[in-house]
Every structure is written in C-alpha cells, then in structure tokens.
Amino acid sequence: MDKAMYYLVYGFLYFLSLFPMRALYFLSDGIYLLVYHVFGYRRKVVMDNLLIAFPEKTHKEKIQIAKKFYHNFIDSFIEVIKLVSAGDSFLMKRFTAETRVLNQLYLSGKSCQLHLGHTFNWEWGQLVLRKLMPYKLLVVYQPISNAIFEKLFYKLRTRTGNAFLPANNMRNAIIPYLESQYLLGLVADQNPSNPDNAYWRNFFGRPTPFVSGPEKGARAGHLPVVFAYMEKPKRGKYHAVIELATENAAELPEGELTTRYVKYLEEVIRRNPDMWLWSHRRWKHQRKS
User: Which residues pair with 201 in a beta bridge?
Assistant: First the structure.
C-alpha cells in the first residue's frame, strides 16, 4: 500500500469531515442525483429485487422505495466520513439503542450472538453499542479489497475497542477472545459462498439460501442469541432495537433459529423497506432440485 496515497486520502476525508452535517447532507443529495439519475448505479439490481419482494406494489411505489433507499445508502457513506473527526459524544447524541436484554444476558456469564441485516447505519451502530453494554464486541466482516480504504475503515471501525474478525479467517481470528465474555455481531443476510451448505428458507416468497455458520456456532456454544434492526426517526438520527431470539440456541431444533431470523428480517424490511441494502443480489442463487 502506498503510504503517501493513504495519508492523502485520509487528509482529504478529515478536511471533509469537519463540515457540519447540514453541509454534508447537502453533498449527499448532490451525489444522489449523480448516482441514481445520471449513472444509475445498480439501479436494475435494486428494481429487480423490489419486484421480487413487493409484487403487490405499483411501479410508482417501488420507485419511491428505491429513491429513499439511495438517499439512505449515500447518507451512510457520508456519515462514515464524519467519523474521521467526530468524537464519541457526536455519535451518542445521534444513535440510541435498547440494550436492556444484553445487560441481562451478560449477568448469566455467557457470551452471546447478535444477528442483524444490512439496515442503515450499522457503521454508527457498532461504535455506539460498545458504549452502552458490558460485552466485548466482536464483529465478523468482509475486508475491503482496496488496501487504502481497508486500512481507513478498519481504523474507524475499531476506534472504540471493538474487534473486527475477517470472515475468511474467523476461526483463527476469534481464538484470542474465546476465554472472554463477548458479543459476536453477525450480519446474517449475506449470500453464502456455498449455497449447497446453506439453510434454504422462503424469504419474500422465494427460496433463498442463508449462511448456516451463525446458527451452527450458536448451537455448538449453547449461546443466547439476540436479533437487531435499526430505525431512522429522521435524517441523522438512528435507534437500534435489540430483541431476544433464544436463551440457548442448542435447545431449538436444527434450522429453527435461522427460520426465526428470516421471518424477523422480512418483517423488519417490510416495515421500513428503504432501510435495507437492496443493491446486492439477494436472490441470485437457484435451489437445486
């Protein structure tokens, strides 16, 4: 990685982050016009996904969801840029979370898993969550292929002491934390790398593969599991809802935890469809007979 280029990018983003949020959201609106109306970034993927998920909605209604999604999507990147210079007090004023269930589970002495989908803004959420509950927070993530942005995002993501474990080496990366009491955060709506080893569930009425690792890990460790999603009361304000899924995943029949999560995720998306990441191809796999 070119260190000079890294510091150049970091310096530019630091300067940009010093602007007030009102100015940054004005910038976000300008980028939205380019991304959605001029370049049409992944617009066909978004509209195809919305057609699958909401066949009952009119074309106009799906367009409205898509436009709101792109605004939220670009806002989330702008909000990450703000992290380059913003302090913890900035985040605490803008992101709240219901952590009572986590505080209660911590008293049991067990570690815990948290399953959530790609609902905005998870980057702010993981930083604030560490401040609101006693667990050590571990987050499984996909490293960014660009070395400069991987280093920058890693620096921002771990600033409150959270540990980020690369998905392609999670088994080894988690070893130093196995003797501690941790909360393992898993974004569980990713496309599995091997659909043949996935749990297939109906998601918006279509057979869809879900990664099996989160459930298998929770069952093996007899861990409690919580589900979470994020709401956006207004621009720049977020609230995370965290709910108990099970106190012991091993006591559920195999596949039941995933079934509960898929039902939960679909309900969350239906309530606030513009808050989910529609730009990834969630239904690209076909189930073999």
Answer: 208
| Residue 80 in tokens | 């990450």
Structure-token pair, residue 129: 């969550």
Distance CA 270, CA 61 (A): 13
Question: Whole-model pTM above 0.90?
Answer: yes
Residues 6+ apart with CB under 8 A from 23: none
- Pair of tokens at residue 83: 């992290």
Residue 150: phi and psi, rounded to 5, are -65, -45
Do the beta carbons of residue 173 and residue 166 sit within 8 Å? yes
Say how far apart CA 231 and CA 210 lie, in whole Å.
23
Compute the distance between CA of residue 115 and CA of residue 265 in angstroms, rounded to an integer. 10
Pairing assessment for the beta strands 199-203 and 136-141 based on DSSP bridges = unpaired
Flag residues of the chain having pLDDT under 70.
1, 289
Work out the burial of residue 127: count CB atoms within 10 Å of its CB; fewer than 13 is exposed, 13-18 middle, 19 or more buried.
buried
The 10s digit of each residue's pLDDT in 222-246 is: 999 999 999 999 999 999 999 999 9
Q: Which amino acid is at 195?
A: P
Please report, for the chain, the start and end positions of each structural domain, with discontinuous segments joined by +. Answer: 3-275
3-state secondary structure of 239: strand
Contact status, residue 89 vs residue 83, Cβ threshold 8 Å = no
